[in-house]
Design brief:
By secondary structure, the chain is mainly β. Helices cover 9% and strands 39% of the residues. The protein has one domain: Riboflavin kinase-like (Elongation Factor Tu (Ef-tu), domain 3), CATH 2.40.30.30. It has 1 helix and 10 strands.
């Protein structure tokens, strides 16, 4: 198990509109995300995280014509403490393969039920899977 804290940030406002289009395509194959809020919690983690073994990977999802045959999404089961000090809630790292945010491995999006968090709030993700901590540059990567 690892716990990584981070800060809630606002990257773009397209998330809720996109999720309204994407999730209906995904829920049939991955029903456990049914009931998630149509919006993401955008976290800038204190430590970099690379997810190489997600709990679920979609087939190409035809949610937007600009993605041709569709976009692939990965999901990793986590818990979120949002904000820090609150009770843990079941959540998923939501990893859209076409997102420009994937370039920065400290930026991650979380989907869960509607939570009362704001930009600047400190949150933590809890991952109950085996991880590998690798030294790299000035910090560490956590690889799942």
């Amino acid at each position: 198990m690892i716990r990584i804290e981070g800060e809630c940030q606002s990257w773009c406002k397209a998330g809720s509109d996109n999720l309204k289009k994407q999730l209906p395509h995904i829920i049939g194959d991955f029903p456990e995300i049914n009931g998630c809020h149509f919006g993401t919690i955008n976290l800038y983690l204190d430590k970099p995280l690379i997810v190489v073994s997600p709990d679920h990977r979609t087939k190409p999802v035809p949610w937007d014509p600009s993605f041709g045959v569709g976009e692939i999404f990965d999901f990793l089961r986590i818990e979120i403490e949002a904000p820090v000090g609150s009770s843990h809630v079941q959540a998923w790292l939501y990893i859209p393969h076409g997102s420009p945010h994937r370039i920065d491995i400290r930026k991650h999006e979380v989907i869960t039920t509607k939570l009362n968090v704001s930009e600047g709030n400190r949150c933590a993700i809890i991952i109950n899977k085996q991880t590998v901590e690798l030294p790299y540059m000035k910090g560490y990567y956590f690889v799942i």
